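Key result, reporting period 2: structure in, sequence out.
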């Protein structure tokens, strides 16, 4: 029986909805889960950093650096003592204090100058985005809303400038000249200015020109004049919701008023019943049609033959003027793409913009892109990306790395992973989020993230927001079982569920022949027994047969990691396998994993803890609701924090000349 579990990822109903502040215990738990929060420097530098943080000679520099001070000192002490081992044991750490003090004074002066210059009328062409213009997101925004947003834009730009500079100078050793042993280093300002421009521009285009909350729809024709009152959005997902319980869109009434219908939009648009999806997964805006080619089977966007890089990119994302072209008020005149293609495009945008500001010409960009450009998903699940994945000449312009959390910088591109149930079973684009690091948190360590259709959020709440897709699916599955149970308490042990074209099963399973039931009337799942979502491992992959090149079936270890909280049938521990349809399982029952809808009451570590000290056949076990939260979300680490300590990142490369 089909059950609509779909959860669409869009800002239409979420952008300006305030996110709940998690209670302190949950925030602390999420810090452990995602590997975020204050970093842990190697033990041998801890006393050195402590001494530097207390050194009177560095007092003014620490004040200037603010929340960046401790992180800066940790990274620089780690690097400099690796190059000068004697500095680590020197009495009073005089060399480190002299060197780091000299650095921090120069960084602080550079930040002050950039804040002054970029806080007013940008004197360089092309200019950074016009923050006053970007403050008017909807055409109906009034003076008060615009003024408030303008101040917010300015404040966030100032934060990003300082954070880009302090983190860059702490992590990118090539920004310092004079040698690693000198006590009088020189900051290389032209490369730093360029990398600041590049990171800042990419992030601001994402933040200021992504799809956001909608106004009122009006439709003029079948392929033009689709107005949603947005004026700054340059990017949209290739879909529009029109009938969803959580979104009371007026898109369909606007179609009707124009003499059109959902069905009449075919074949360009296909209806799922609650949203329309464009026939292609990427479509650039009409001005750029002739310069880009979308390859749907291979999911890549490339230059058309004869296209020039700067022209093709400018027609997709205009650099000048710094205000938003009025054409973007029409939904049909925006770029329609998913997060991976959009962020790949912003990599090119940042490169072109910063190089043009530094050299005054597009020559370097056009030469670099002439060798080949492919917009595609750039990041693997583990390990460093391929540096040539975006550009054949990418090694000169990008760094493709796998780095620890504390080396993340504003403008770094990473993937924040949701529970893969959302991706492979719900079929939602919310299964992962290609994201940019957009700011550093107030503690100097946590990062803020934003992606296409995902508002800027501190990483802990990013996990909670992503878990909302699972929470909604769980609620619908529980209702499905409850309705079946109310109609007939003698439920069969297996209930079939279909989500779009994907089939899976709800299975009643007592691993040790226990008698399971709800603890009390407050438990949402009313049916007797422990109910599980049975997920075949061969369903947990993007490319499946009949695709000519299907992805390999994940191992049991990988499957359990992809779906946190899931378990397997382990007969070596005395487990009794579930009752399944004949021919639908392997003899060892390792073809599938099981994701619970409930957990044993009062048991630490959920089912894992219960399996270590389980009840026996015929024993009663009370169950309580399992509420999906950030614990369900792998976050930065696809394979889990215990199996993976670095994050795959694509980021700009410092250009010395």
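The corresponding designed sequence is given below.
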């Amino acid at each position: 029986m089909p059950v609509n579990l779909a959860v669409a990822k869009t800002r239409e109903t979420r952008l300006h909805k305030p996110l709940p502040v998690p209670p302190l215990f949950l925030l602390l738990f999420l810090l452990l889960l995602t590997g975020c929060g204050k970093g842990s420097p190697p033990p041998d530098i801890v006393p050195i950093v402590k001494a530097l943080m207390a050194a009177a000679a560095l007092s003014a520099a620490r004040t200037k650096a603010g929340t960046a001070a401790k992180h800066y000192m940790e990274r620089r002490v780690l690097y400099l003592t690796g190059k000068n081992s004697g500095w680590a044991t020197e009495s009073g750490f005089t060399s480190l204090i002299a060197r780091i003090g000299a650095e921090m004074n120069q960084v602080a002066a550079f930040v002050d100058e950039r804040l002054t210059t970029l806080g007013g009328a940008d004197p360089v062409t092309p200019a950074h985005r016009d923050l006053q213009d970007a403050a008017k997101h909807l055409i109906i925004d009034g003076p008060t809303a615009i003024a408030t947003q303008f101040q917010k834009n300015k404040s966030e730009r100032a934060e990003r400038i300082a954070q880009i500079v302090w983190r860059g100078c702490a992590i990118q050793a090539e920004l310092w000249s004079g040698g690693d042993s000198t006590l009088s280093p020189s900051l290389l300002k032209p490369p730093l200015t360029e990398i600041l421009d590049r990171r800042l521009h990419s992030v601001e285009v994402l933040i200021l020109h992504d799809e956001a909350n909608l106004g009122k729809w009006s439709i003029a024709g079948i392929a033009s004049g689709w107005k949603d009152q947005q004026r700054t959005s340059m990017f949209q997902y290739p879909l529009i919701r029109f009938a969803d319980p959580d979104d009371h869109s007026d898109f369909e009434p606007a179609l009707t008023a124009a003499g059109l219908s959902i069905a009449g939009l075919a074949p360009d648009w296909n209806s799922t019943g609650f949203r329309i999806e464009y026939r292609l997964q990427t479509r650039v805006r009409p001005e750029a049609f002739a310069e880009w080619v979308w390859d749907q089977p291979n999911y890549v966007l490339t230059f058309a033959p004869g296209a020039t890089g700067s022209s093709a990119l400018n027609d997709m994302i205009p650099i000048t003027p710094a205000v938003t072209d009025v054409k973007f008020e029409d939904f049909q005149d925006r770029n329609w793409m998913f997060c991976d293609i959009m962020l790949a495009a912003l990599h090119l945008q940042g490169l072109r913009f910063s190089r043009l500001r530094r050299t005054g010409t597009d020559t370097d960009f056009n030469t670099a892109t002439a060798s080949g450009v492919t917009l595609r998903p750039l990041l693997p699940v583990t390990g460093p990306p391929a540096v040539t994945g975006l550009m054949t000449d990418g090694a000169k312009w990008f760094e493709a790395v796998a780095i620890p959390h504390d080396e993340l910088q504003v403008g770094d591109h990473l993937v924040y992973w949701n529970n893969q149930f959302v991706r492979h079973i719900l079929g939602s684009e919310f299964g992962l989020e290609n994201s940019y690091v957009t700011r550093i948190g107030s503690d100097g360590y946590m990062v803020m993230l934003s992606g296409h259709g995902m508002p800027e959020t501190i990483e802990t709440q990013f996990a909670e927001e992503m878990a909302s897709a699972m929470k909604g699916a769980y609620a619908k599955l529980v209702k499905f079982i409850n309705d079946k149970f109310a109609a007939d308490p003698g439920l069969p042990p297996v209930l079939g569920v279909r989500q779009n074209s994907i089939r899976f099963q709800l299975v009643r399973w007592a691993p040790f022949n226990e008698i399971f039931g709800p603890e009390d009337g407050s438990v949402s799942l009313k049916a007797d027994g422990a109910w599980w979502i049975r997920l075949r491992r061969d369903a947990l992959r993007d490319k499946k047969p009949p695709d000519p090149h299907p992805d390999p079936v994940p191992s049991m270890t990988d499957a359990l990691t992809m779906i946190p909280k899931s378990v397997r049938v382990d007969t070596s521990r005395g487990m009794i396998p579930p009752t399944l349809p004949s021919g639908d399982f392997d003899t060892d029952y390792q073809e599938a994993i099981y994701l619970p809808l409930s957990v044993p009451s009062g048991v630490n570590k959920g089912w894992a803890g219960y399996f270590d000290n389980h009840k026996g056949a015929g024993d009663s076990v009370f169950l309580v609701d399992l509420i999906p939260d950030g614990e369900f979300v792998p976050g930065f680490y696809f394979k889990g924090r215990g199996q993976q300590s670095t994050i795959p990142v694509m980021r700009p490369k410092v250009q010395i000349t």
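Confidence is low (pLDDT under 50) at residues 6-37. The first helix runs from residue 24 to 34. This case is discussed further under Risks and Mitigation.
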